[in-house]
Each structure stands twice: as C-alpha cells, then as structure tokens.
Amino acid sequence: MRAVCDGALAGVGPVPAEQRSDELQRGEPDPRAIIRGWGALTAEVAPRIGPILLLVRDAAINDPAMAELQAEMDLSRLTRMTHNAASLADAGHLRAGLDLESAADVLWTYSSPELFELLVLRRGWAVERYGTFVAEAMIAALLADGATSPLRSP
C-alpha cells in the first residue's frame, strides 16, 4: 500500500510532483504564482492519492497496520507542508503574525484528502475548480495581501 501511495503522490509525467514543487519554489519570485502552481499540482495529484488515503483512513478503524500507514502519511504530508510554509516564510511572504506552524497547518488542511472528498467526490466539483479553490484559499489565508476570495467560481 505504501508503494501505491508513493506512486500516486508522484503525479503524472517523468518528474515527480514534489520535485516540480521544489523547482517552482526556487525559480518563481511571486508567491501567488507559487501557490497557484501548488493548486495545479493538487488538482493533478489529489484524484490519484485522495481515494487511496480515504480507503486507508476507513481501513484504519479496524486495522492497526492501516492506522500506522495513515499516521505515517499524515506526518509525511505535514512535513512537506511545513517545508512549503518555510519556503514562503523565508522569502518574507507570510502575512504578519502568522507563524510557521500555523502556516503549515493551513497548507496541511487544504491538501487533505477529506477536502477533496467533500468538494470533488461528494459535491461534484471539477478537479480544476478544486485546484483553483485550494490555491486561492491558501493565498487568502497565508499571504500579506491575499485579497482574493477562495469561494469564487471559475
């Protein structure tokens, strides 16, 4: 199951999604463009990994091995989101008063399989709309002048 998760998280194409995210962070000075890139990566990866993580979550209720995998995947996502938040913080992009832990929690929440489940699987949103929502919500929550609304329709 770990191998299936790793494959799903890589996204599509020859360069893994995580590596593309790192390249974007290194090469793009505009935090909005970075976060919108994360939204596009979310739209790419969430349909691949979300259903798997939801299955692991549900299996974790009765299966200790699945509970361990769920905890491992949650920690891995939090570690990655902390890395992304640190990138924004180091570049001076976070809004005043927002600490690294809180920024990481925002990113962790918006990258959750549960949000994908609610909006795409249950409410029927298009994946592109979901990716845009995630990006605009992150911008509004994290950036100093994140004056966009996460609720606008594309």
Count of discrete alpha- or pi-helical segments spanning 4 or more residues: 7
| Overall helicity | over 70%
What is the level 1 CATH name?
Answer: Mainly Alpha
Low-confidence stretches are 147-154
Break the fold down into its secondary structure elements and pairings:
Layout: H1 2-9, H2 17-27, H3 31-59, H4 64-90, H5 100-110, H6 113-122, H7 127-142
Structure characterization notes:
- With 154 residues, this protein is an all-alpha fold.
- It has one domain (2-11, 20-142): Tetracycline Repressor, domain 2 (Orthogonal Bundle).
- 73% of the residues lie in helices and 0% in strands.
- The chain contains seven helices and no strands.
- It has helices at 2-9, 17-27, 31-59, 64-90, 100-110, 113-122, 127-142.
- Helix 3 (31-59) crosses helix 6 and helix 5 (100-110) packs antiparallel against helix 7.
- The chain starts with a helix and ends in a 12-residue tail after the last helix.
List the main descriptive attributes of the protein structure presented here.
disordered C terminus, mainly alpha, Tetracycline Repressor, domain 2, globular, about 150 residues
